[in-house]
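Hey,

The postdoc asked me to send both predictions to you directly instead of through the lab channel. I've kept everything plain text so nothing gets mangled by the mail client. Protein one:
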Amino acid sequence: MQVKQAPLSVVERFYLPEVIRGVAVTTGHFVRNMALHTLHLFGLARSRAAMVTVQYPEQRKTYSEGYRGAHRLTLKPDGSVRCTSCFLCATACPAKCIHIEAGEHPSPEVEKFPLRYEIDTLQCIYCGMCVEACPCDAIRMDTFVHPRVWGYRREDFIESKQVLMERSRVLETRGREALMDDMLSVYREEEALAAEGR
């Protein structure tokens, strides 16, 4: 059964009320922030914070505990990857960005392991379905590092098994902040190389 909707009025057809409401919201935020910043210049209204842009990378936003950051592959105590190449993460992925190539494990106790495990971060929507689907806790998104935003080629955004495993090693040995520091240092190096190439 199809429900009939009431026809739009002439005013609604022009979307004028919604446009005016949108401009009013934007103008209201602008005027409030401008007034607060002006009062702060004169030492007034210090208790009321105005909205400011985070000056990344000098300033960093504090991520909540539930933040889904860059992926990592967890490790066994012996340092090998925990993944058993069951393909459940790749199957559950709505963006189809996880590519796994399974191989026979040298140890007879382990059936298989990933020879290749790659995540295309340009396709990934960071939904966390891969983490939910994994039966052996082999993939996590608890790095508190945002996705890579620097690169000139598509290959720059494909994270290999080695990169994903290295995040777990860094997290275990040097802590959460070291992941962000490492990423920022890579950005600075690439920025310097790009400036030299001009």
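Protein two:
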Amino acid sequence: MNPAAMVLSTAGGVGLIGLALLDAFATFFSHVKRGALSHALVRAMWSTCHRLPGTGALRLAGPVSVLIVLASWVVMLTIGWALVYWPWMPGGFLHTVELDAPGSSLHDSLYFSLVTLATLGYGDISPLSGWLRVVAPLESLLGLGLLTGSVSWLLSIFPVLSRRRALAYEIRLLEEARTDPDDPGPPSPLPSSVYADLTSRLVASERDLVTFPITYYFHDDDIRFALPAAMEHLLELAEEARREVSLSEVHFHGGLLLRAIDDFAASLAERFHLSNRGSTREVLEAYARDHATGVG
């Protein structure tokens, strides 16, 4: 390989490694706009699932998106490191078995890169040059770090989903209790403590979406646990509480809940490309449509 090709291969490899690490760092530490690649992949998956008939595809969008993001990092790191090794293959490496045919150095580079990234260490190809003997363990450390970070990320997603579903179910139960056909009287305002609890849990859900934006793309078929379908009910509860001027605590906590709903809607509009020109209600309606849910 001529010097220009060596420089080009190494520069391309370093660029891919940097892109993968930057995207992983942004995803793990909640910088959605910096994690542009992962965000674009997930949005593309979400849009594709929307074009398929029924809601079954939406149910798979979140889990499949997680796999796609993780696979993209592995592919970029494997190819990136392979491009770094390629100019020095085979002369810079010790092979326990001679290469089968000339021109197979790219294949060996990809193989060595993947084995090193996975920290398997078969030992059939080993670096000889001094700097390569330093770089190869560095790839193993990055692979181990990526594995650890990915597992922690995955384990953090499921509690977020559980909290969101629990909030949606509570809102649903409150709405059903208030509209019970066996109770002929008009619905009475809820205790102020209920509004305060709903406010704190909605704030936590909004922070969860900011910290783990990929959880937005997990669709719930069961409408009882679908927060997009429950948010309009919550808005109605808050507006009714705000109208209770004769009950100062209920009025006050209703106002707090309305502000939390406004912030939740603003966060949705900014981060997930929902309508950001309309009212809070319009954003929440767009949220429900995006998840193919309705208020029922």
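Summary for protein two, as requested: The longest helix spans residues 130-178.

Thanks,
C.
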